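Dear all,

This email documents one entry for the complex benchmark we are building for the journal club exercise. For each entry we list the sequence lines for every component of the assembly. Then comes the predicted three-dimensional structure of the complex as a token string, followed by one or two observations. Please use this as the template for your own entries, and keep the labels exactly as they appear.
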Amino acid sequence: MTEQATPAPSPTHPVPAPRDPHLRAMANCIRFLSMDAVQQANSGHPGAPMGLADVATVLFKDFMQFDASDPHWLDRDRFVLSNGHASMLLYSLLYLTGYQDMTLDEIKRFRQVGSKTAGHPEYSHAEGIELTTGPLGQGIAESVGMALAERIMNAHFGDDLVNHHTYVFLGDGCLMEGISQEAISLAGHLKLGRLIAFWDNNSISIDGATSLAVSDNEIERFHASGWHVLEIDGHDTDAIRQAIETARATQDRPTLIACKTIIGFGFPTRAGTQKAHSDAPGEAEIAGARNILDWHSPPFEIPDDLLKAWREVGAKGRDARLAWADRVKAAPQALRSDFERRTAGKLPENWKNAIVAARQAFIADGKEMATRKASGDVLNHLFDAIPELLGGSADLTPSNNTKTKQQVEIKPGQYAGSYVHYGVREHGMAAAMNGIALHGGLIPYGGTFLCFSDYCRPAIRLSAMMRVRTIYVMTHDSIGLGEDGPTHQPVEHLAALRAIPQLAVYRPGDAIETAECWELILEQPRRAALLALSRQPLPLLRNEADGENRSARGAYILHEAEGGPRQVTLLATGSELQLAVQAREILQSEGVPTAVVSMPCRLLFEEQDKAYKRAVLGHSPARVAVEAAVELGWDRYIGPEGRFIGMHSFGESGKIQDVYDKFGITTDAVVRAAREILKDIAV
Amino acid sequence: MTEQATPAPSPTHPVPAPRDPHLRAMANCIRFLSMDAVQQANSGHPGAPMGLADVATVLFKDFMQFDASDPHWLDRDRFVLSNGHASMLLYSLLYLTGYQDMTLDEIKRFRQVGSKTAGHPEYSHAEGIELTTGPLGQGIAESVGMALAERIMNAHFGDDLVNHHTYVFLGDGCLMEGISQEAISLAGHLKLGRLIAFWDNNSISIDGATSLAVSDNEIERFHASGWHVLEIDGHDTDAIRQAIETARATQDRPTLIACKTIIGFGFPTRAGTQKAHSDAPGEAEIAGARNILDWHSPPFEIPDDLLKAWREVGAKGRDARLAWADRVKAAPQALRSDFERRTAGKLPENWKNAIVAARQAFIADGKEMATRKASGDVLNHLFDAIPELLGGSADLTPSNNTKTKQQVEIKPGQYAGSYVHYGVREHGMAAAMNGIALHGGLIPYGGTFLCFSDYCRPAIRLSAMMRVRTIYVMTHDSIGLGEDGPTHQPVEHLAALRAIPQLAVYRPGDAIETAECWELILEQPRRAALLALSRQPLPLLRNEADGENRSARGAYILHEAEGGPRQVTLLATGSELQLAVQAREILQSEGVPTAVVSMPCRLLFEEQDKAYKRAVLGHSPARVAVEAAVELGWDRYIGPEGRFIGMHSFGESGKIQDVYDKFGITTDAVVRAAREILKDIAV
């Protein structure tokens, strides 16, 4: 018997002959870099990059307006990979098109600590990563914000300065997430014709065939939300090109291009199956793909001619960019300087005068005022000073006080304005605001009830992680919401939000602190911020004319103890600050030297040095914290002898004062707690 | 000149003549109770109850299978008010149909502290409130779970015992929330023909006309998800009746009945406008409604004949209920006792043998094992013992280890099974599980990555608030997730979840604790629970044969200090428990008596008495806590001299050990921290 070679297994999904061998070869560069990187990392998701490689090749080669040598060019097209697990698709494109910091070494260090090539694309890790994606559905929702920002900027600055597309790739998982519906619905309503989405319609998810869990007609679904929908074979490069052309010609509606693809295109046995989705393919599968796709380079090596072709793609936008730069230079001086200032993320000079004016008005008025109302007043003052502020609310405009008198509403097809009715789409709003902030030129803020921060939480997390200045205006911030009851009364939300790294949670205690918090938010361009604001009116507790921002260090001594060394420290935030002030008066009248510490922002306080923290918290162990929320996190400041006056359960429906009384969050309770500690430590 | 009466303003929406004056009068009972209650409370939402009154009257009078004298009848139809702000609609129905605890006094105490009539319907506040609603979209998603539970119970127990409908009212806001898409998509996929939804299509939300923010074709959208859709005039009682009949006859698909309604139907000037949505209408508006609707009773008074008619509606299901009870009695003994046990929420005798068996297997095996794997093994042992366990995952079945070998998958139209592929719909899954748990007869558990608890958070909050035994199996619970990186690595989630009142968050440290946590979860029928489980293998740290559940008190001394009074206490949870155990060995070897405290459940520990807590935490101030998560909440246990080894930022993509090293979460770091405290306090 003669020895026989084992025949290669017949491919489960035979590879169709390419329309254009050169394009297929260019796409194969993406496929093999993706396979090789996942194999080397022994971890990752090869299937989607391989399935989407043809679409990406046509899009980047023939349409994407960008210049790899200037990743920050404002008028570049935006590319969003909503199915972020396909990160090797993006990293391959960045390397191939010649982004300087995406080296082959970085590709080889895929998914290793310290690399630019994390498991999912991380904003700011490398140039060309427009945003962080991975949690499914976030990318499509953020891209709606980007596309909206483009239109708003276009309406203000004209076609010469802002005129580009937003392209987004998304997978089956993105479409199953509820946030995708909010995004699709909002984009369709607003007629965002510059948004073009590509659905990687490969019918595979982690549990197996998508038919295990979903039977939706996605074409009909997008159509129901006013989208233009096209269906193509995602491996037919002619069809891809034609679809993109049709989509670009359709300017009154966003377009979905449903691309029928084979996950793991090129794998001999895994193509079209769940096994191609995640995990390293193994040497045999890669060897098979080499045969099938006629690829002869060693791992991580791209043939010179193909690399050259790709580098040309990365450089082809250079002329357009230079022409744009000339147009910027030729623009009227005022427009140009406004454009350059805004897109550089700089605030106008003298914007702080608006804050000063708001403070002065509050002091002149002197009356009780809800901090949500104070926030609305601050925004009214800011409107003229900072034209890039873009407001909105998730259908709670009159409650959130987010709309200033002057703001013009954005409407379908009419983008010359600065207020967005986001609808009852908290999550979609939050993600869209991230996209708006990332686009550049606009500062988004949006409102809902604090309780519904839960609905936006995955997007809030990304705001914090990406360090973008997305501003959450969240009112009705405690049981002080009253009659709507426990489902609408935030109790655990302050703690839960303070737990998010890098997120600045502000809870001002009166109108003056509200102005201070807005000032702090606006002067920190790389920090996501959330304002927790009261429904109920609060007394004005400050009246300094000097305008010093006392909230800037996160916590400060509002009233120092008098008549001797401090015996008691009362800590409070927001609507409970008044209780601490009243309790101090009682304790002082009893001869107990008592200080009140206001702590509008825990994060900023934690950044102070030890000496400042000690001075604020005082040396007496008699500390009482009062906040109409759960205790979690307060132990740090009150210490083992301290007491906490706040919530230990969900809230209850009722009149505001009745609810506070019911849960024992009162001046008396604060006074009593202080007395008890003094007694305990005297023993 | 003679005095002339001011003419009444012409109504903005003239009231159409009723098809059936008696039905209109019955509906007006709901309208006036709602108006009167909102007016008295000076707070609430009158518009939706007034708009939906005709639909509710026909549904309850002619279709709803229920008996007001036995609210817990298992085979009753379920009624879900997803637009929970329309709570007065439900309270009116409960009072009118004669639920004993819904008195007129309660209606008069609408939205007051201590009443059964909270601003939004609160489960367990009054009989007949099937679930807590208010956060928009939750009700429709929970009703999908209820309808699925009905089919699964029907498949197991047959038409004689379980055979009912789930009816859900929803508003425009529910449809704008992303969770509604997850719910609609899942219900359509599973062909839940017993689910009938009524859309209150009134085109008004808080910001104004819904056209400000939404342009979706909802009919097409539901159709795209496989629903049967009907469109009717929501004030035409004949059309309503006919639509419900058609919907009930359609058993292979869920039905949406789009009801065109006038918000605030009957108000003279506010009908059909945003002003009818929220807030007290004022006396003038109510007086106008009295004229228009021909209503002559004083506030809160229902004419005897109408009350009698309504009480008959509440009693009409009595015979059906008694017949059902007879069928239960006549059922085969084994089926009957199983049915009665399960629907009473009692576990089978001897179920704990499965836990014992799982523990024994872990000890016999003795190897390293991820707690997610241990959880899967426990479930395999539990499968035969507790047939009412209903598993599932949001498309992470192989990662979450949620599917046992024996479980049969639920498929469209095929409900004889015990595993649900929920798809990439974490939020919809969580809410559906609430509905399943509330339905009775099933114990739902479902998996995703811990990081994506953020996507389910509004539903998790409701699990906790309603005290239902919904079980969240959340794996990949820290930076130990590794290469997928910061977007997938939970950091703040443990703190954020522990902040939710009444939610038991379990983070077991090895396979034995995993079995203990499952035991604790299952034996507490009124507590929502979340398991945080490791991706990475963990050593077995326990090997007692006695089977005592040491996790039952939330925290316990895993190893007491030896060789003298305790000098150091190391606290840990989950995958970091092994670091504490290793650190203790080093410290003991250096002659430092060191204890290790394992704290798998903070909530249970907080419920212990002071003496136990003190004994566990020890008297030495040298305490070190180690957890691969943010510090928030740990100060409480480590005190001012204590140290925390954990996360102070988001995570990073990389190999597990590299990531732990990068963030300094190591045995050495724990040892060093202990030594430093001992040095500090010795000074």
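Observations: The longest strand of chain A covers residues 623-630. Confidence is low (pLDDT under 50) at residues 1-9 of chain A.
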